[in-house]
Design goal:
mainly alpha
Length: about 475
């Protein structure tokens, strides 16, 4: 009898230990150990970031001061805040707080449940309000409406306590990221003064060469001439300067003259395809389209919707593409005002053909033969195309065929969709579209692409995963 009781006790102990073991394994598989009751970020779809970035594109078109590169910087901080607001629900990933120790990211409450779409929604809404204090009241109302839409939608998914905790966490993360942005004095509120009057461009270089000056026909002062002082996210200081451009020369046998001759020839002999490519990628005018950095977001939005990716994958994509474009823009704009290379409109009219014009025309006004208001080398469009292509390829893979419908049904320019066999193909076309438009030399596109690719590579190399 005693032997039977002993055997029964032993059996009960074994069953109990087995139950504890199974329960423990189930807990570990359900999510991060610091909030076991929460679903993972990957368990949700990308509806929250997709909606916020759709709204960003609409605001970007009309937002004063947020032309490149300031727009790229804003996108970087918005993307970083959203990533940090949901990364506790991403077991393979980690916060970048050690990379940026001055960014005091709050922690989640141990053992408490979180609803990650609510955290992301609060982070986006908070960052939009911080970065867009100057937009039209109607657009500010759209921020409130989008946030409220998701709050109402999520009210059926979790308890009030969970949703409130999640929203508070997302907002706190966004506030911490914005405060970190504020410590970057050169970039933080530069959008308020994109053409500082205290910048006077030099007229000649150390060898007597002619340098960039505000260009015909509007002679707008330089855009963001001090942007090279902005804090990068991943590029090393030694990588922030472009390679030296081809030496300036007015000798017809020189490489510089030949580069200008190519741009002149492309305008004189432009085909329908040349004009289509040039206008398709232009995005030069505020209130006509979004600016060139937002163009990469527009491409990303199309692929996010097509692939129906998770919240986890989406916040990674948007954080990385924003940070890569921001770094590329810092390197490019800093280099522009170091080398101060004359634009084709200056050189060609001065040296080759006094009546020569670009085909960059403002479709809502009578302004024609325009040129962006900053030095030529390197190309900002090329850097955004290169950095965007690098990140999109990293997330979605090589040889990803897609159609860019960004400007479908636009009547002011040739906005018909274009088909690409890869993101790199699109980025390269973007870069070299500036030559048949008449606003760049080939060398500008070459170096802009290189810096864009490098910025994407350095952002990808950051310690995103554990």
């Amino acid at each position: 009898m005693k032997s039977l009781l002993s055997k029964n006790k032993l059996l009960l102990v074994c069953l109990g230990l087995a139950f504890v073991f199974v329960t423990s394994c189930r807990k570990d598989s359900d999510g991060p150990s610091n909030n076991d009751s929460s679903k993972l970020t990957a368990d949700y779809n990308a509806s929250v970031p997709k909606a916020w970035y759709d709204l960003m594109l609409e605001i970007d078109r009309y937002s004063p001061g947020y032309r490149p590169p300031a727009a790229a910087r804003m996108m970087a901080y918005v993307g970083l805040a959203a990533y940090e607001s949901v990364v506790p629900g991403m077991p393979e990933y980690q916060s970048l707080v050690l990379q940026y120790p001055a960014m005091a990211i709050p922690r989640i409450a141990s053992g408490e449940k979180y609803h990650w779409p609510s955290s992301a929604n609060a982070a986006y809404a908070t960052m939009f309000r911080y970065f867009y204090p100057h937009i039209k009241p109607a657009d500010l109302a759209r921020i409130d409406q989008l946030e409220a839409r998701f709050v109402n939608e999520f009210s059926l998914e979790e308890s009030d306590d969970v949703l409130r905790r999640s929203r508070n966490f997302g907002k706190a993360v966004a506030e911490a990221v914005f405060q970190y942005s504020a410590t970057d004095v050169a970039g933080h509120e530069a959008f308020k003064n994109p053409h500082p009057s205290n910048y006077v461009p030099p007229k000649t270089g150390v060898n007597g060469e002619k340098l960039w000056q505000p260009t015909y026909p509007d002679f707008t002062p330089g855009l963001f001439p001090y942007w090279g002082n902005v804090r990068p996210f991943a590029l090393k200081s030694a990588e922030m300067r472009a390679k030296p451009p081809i030496p300036y020369s007015e000798d017809p046998s020189s490489n510089f003259y030949q580069q200008a001759s190519e741009t002149r020839f492309r305008i004189k002999n432009a085909t329908f395809e040349d004009r289509w490519v040039a206008e398709f990628w232009s995005d030069d005018f505020a209130e006509v389209t979004f600016e060139p950095a937002a163009r990469q977001i527009a491409i990303a939005n199309q692929i996010v919707e097509l692939e129906d990716i998770s919240l986890e994958r989406a916040v990674e994509l948007y954080a990385k593409i924003g940070m890569a474009m921001a770094d590329a823009a810092i390197a490019v704009w800093g280099s522009k005002y170091i080398f101060n290379v004359r634009r084709p409109i200056e050189y060609i009219r001065d040296v080759m053909d006094p009546a020569w014009t670009t085909i960059l025309n403002q479709p809502y006004s009578s302004e024609k033969s325009l040129t962006p208001p900053f030095p030529a080398y390197p190309s900002g469009h090329a850097s955004f195309g290169g950095s965007g292509a690098g990140i999109l390829t990293h997330i979605f893979g090589d040889n990803y065929s897609f159609t860019d419908n960004c400007h479908v049904n636009r009547f002011e320019f040739i906005g018909a969709p274009r088909r690409f066999s890869s993101f790199y193909e699109a980025g390269i076309e973007n870069a070299y579209s500036r030559v048949p438009l008449g606003v760049h030399y080939r060398m500008d596109s070459d170096e802009g692409l290189r810096l864009g690719y490098l910025a994407a590579k350095r952002v990808i190399e950051l310690p995103w995963k554990k």
